[in-house]
């Protein structure tokens, strides 16, 4: 089984962090392939960054189809481009937020997602509600720019821990979800410190991808995730024009 991990931002060190976390939990017969977007923002913080990251994400998914992969994980907790990717691909595509909160729901009645900036908190809160967990989950921002998670001297880990402690005491959280792919390497350490389940979206998505592939299941192509209709795309988007399957 081959699982593609696509980082929709252009920071390669974040891709490697996600790939490392994926390989730790992957089954012995699973190959993890890592890809970094070659165009777009260096980090994704809010709607504007996310919108401009989608073309690079779709390019990686499309270009790597020839080599083949059985499932793909979009390594951004905003589930950047998830709907478009599912329309493009014929294999399961998983997002970190959807995978992580589904996993947390198996483990706790109430849980808190701790993310980076306030603009991301609002976006993720909307996703949590859309995925049906709004009554069980709260989303908190720890005031950490994403790239500060790459800098050990930034104080980001202290801010993250302080927000987790507030979630446990003020929210009554029974589990914590780490709301950024850049936090993936901290999950096990934080779980040991706080004694509650700490869910990392990359690990959750990889295990769910393996399960879907093993069950022989993929995204439905009837209705909302049907393949794009062939039509011209103009200007800089011309390379994204869908091609007829019989052409």
Distance between the termini: 29 Å
How many helices does DSSP assign? 8
Helix content: 40-55%
Q: Order of strands side by side in the largest beta sheet?
A: 2-1-3-4
Q: Which ranges are low-confidence, i.e. pLDDT below 50, for 5 or more consecutive residues?
A: none
Specify the biggest β-sheet. Answer: 4 strands, parallel
Strand portion, in percent? Answer: 5-15%
Helix-and-strand structural type: alpha/beta
Say how many strands there are. Answer: 8
Written as H for each helix and E for each strand, in order along the chain, the element string is EHEHEHEHEHEHEHEH
Radius of gyration: 18 Å
Mean pLDDT: 95
Protein name: Aspartate/glutamate racemase family protein
Organism: Rhizobium mulingense
Explain what the structure shows.
It comes from Rhizobium mulingense. This is Aspartate/glutamate racemase family protein. With about 250 residues, this protein is α/β, with parallel strands linked by helices. Helix content is about 40%, strand content about 15%. A 4-stranded parallel β-sheet has the order 2-1-3-4, sandwiched between helices. Strands 6-5-7-8 form a 4-stranded parallel β-sheet, with helices on both faces. Strand 5, helix 5 and strand 6 form a beta-alpha-beta unit. Helix 4 crosses helix 8. The longest helix has 17 residues. It is globular and about 55 Å long. It starts with a strand and ends in a 33-residue tail after the last helix. The model has no long low-confidence stretch (mean pLDDT about 95).
């Amino acid at each position: 089984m081959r699982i593609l991990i696509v980082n929709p931002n252009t920071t390669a060190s974040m891709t490697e962090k996600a790939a490392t976390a994926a390989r730790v939990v992957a089954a012995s017969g699973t190959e993890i392939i890592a890809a970094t977007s070659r165009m777009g923002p260096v980090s994704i913080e809010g709607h504007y960054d996310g919108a401009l990251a989608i073309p690079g994400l779709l390019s990686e998914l499309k270009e790597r189809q020839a080599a083949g992969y059985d499932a793909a994980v979009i390594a951004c907790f905003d589930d950047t481009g998830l709907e478009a990717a599912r329309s493009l691909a014929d294999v399961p595509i998983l997002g970190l937020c959807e995978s992580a909160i589904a996993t947390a729901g198996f483990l706790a009645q109430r849980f808190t997602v701790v993310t980076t900036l306030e603009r991301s908190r609002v976006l993720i809160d909307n996703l949590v509600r859309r995925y049906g967990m709004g009554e069980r989950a709260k989303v908190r921002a720890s005031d950490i720019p994403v790239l500060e998670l790459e800098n050990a001297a930034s104080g980001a880990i202290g801010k993250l821990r302080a927000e987790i402690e507030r979630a446990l005491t003020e929210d009554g959280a029974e589990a914590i979800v780490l709301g950024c792919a850049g936090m993936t390497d901290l999950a096990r350490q934080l779980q040991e410190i706080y004694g509650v389940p700490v869910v990392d979206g990359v690990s959750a998505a990889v295990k769910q991808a393996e399960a879907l592939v093993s069950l022989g299941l993929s995204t439905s192509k009837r209705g909302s995730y049907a393949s794009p209709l062939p039509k011209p795309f103009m200007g800089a988007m011309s390379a994204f024009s869908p091609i007829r399957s019989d052409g």
